[in-house]
Predict the structure.
Amino acid sequence: MKKIRIGVIPAAGRGLRAYSKTKNIPKPLTIIENKPIIQRNIEIMRDQFGIKKIYIIIGYLGNQIKKQLGNGSKFGVQINYVTQKKLSGIGSAIYLLKNVIKEKFLVILGDEIYTNSNHHEMQKNLPKNYDAICCFLETSNKKKIRKNYSGEFLNGKIKCLIEKPKKPKNNFIGCGTYIFTPKIFEYISLTPPSKLRNEVEITDVINNIAIKEKSVYPFFLKGNYANITTVEDMNSISFDLKSKNFYNYKVSLIIPAYNEEETIGNVIDEFKIPSIHEILVVDNNSTDKTAKIAKSKTVRVITEHKQGYGNALKTGMNHATGDILIITEADGTFRSKDIGKILEYLKDSDMVIGTRTTRQMIEQGANMGWFLRWGNVFLGKFIEVLWWNLEPRFTDVGCTYRGIWKPSYLKIKHNLNGTGPEFSPEMMIEVLKKKMRIIEIPVSYYKRMRGESKHSIGFNKIKTGTKMLKLIIKKRIF
């Protein structure tokens, strides 16, 4: 039997229910686990079907999709673009190809994610006289079925399709993967727009074929599936994918250090735990034995000659080999017991930052007096107000115990200009501006083991706060 040679990816919609994420980027380009959604579906077509020619139907912010994917050569396929000027449904989008496609073709919606799927089995045993094949996946989650569509089956065929069924009659959720023959174009032209959205719904089109032609068949997918409709859908599938692979990720701990010979050895020992795969000490021109002691602990030690906390951190993150980067201090004010908490929340976010605002978790005598406490709260709330539409929640911009995925850091590294402690709020702001997710969690905070803070005592507190405030305002204006 002749193989399917053509793929179609509808990717024109505005993604209104995920608007906080899709205001400036089309939903199919949303990054989920380090890869755009649409790229995943291109790879399914290429790898599981052997398809080399793909039509992508673009509309809202379509030029971004064209710029990102190009002609498809970097993916080993040929991509052709068709523009849907009036966004009037998936059915109308596919109809734009009626004079172009004259053979059976595969459709995968541009905002759905499949992992570990068996798509390749679809074309092994195609029915003889089919006009459409719809994919279903078994699930016990009736809520998901109610948000998608379901089907009723009879004698191996689809009897009918039900869009957003209130009471699903089985455990099969309808997916956005289809195989069509050119018969689909005839039925699109015959199907009126739905009363609900005034669009030609592809589910209605297929349902009409099933009822009149009795030539629509189901294919039952295996693996994992997600229809990305809302921001919560994005967060949920991201969490699922990260969780399944989490123990394969490598974790790097970065410790910037300047004249911390009295504490650096103890801090390294504290963080030599199984969940940390690499410890990287960045010596920032120490004049004491900080670097020598760190090297004696058999950890990586590199030198950053440009003075400043921000400079040291950037160098450390650039040199770290881990998939996850965790930052801590060289003075013993943080403990390894919070690492597990940071890692757990990184499954659900791009960056996790600590907050030292829970009094029960602050050791008596720790450098967290009223000025520092309320100064950090004020600056955190100031950022919230300035970037209100991005829904941040911050109470401690100065906490330097935090974790970030390396790919997330790479997206912002060229926008990080702070050389001192103002680097901490700058990281937070740049992650926000990239529409990435930040979660703030309470961490324990202790007295320094020895020595004194380089930028949080006396007049330096006011100087540090002023630098942070100036940077925040500058980031908002420019």
Notes: The chain has a mean pLDDT of 93.
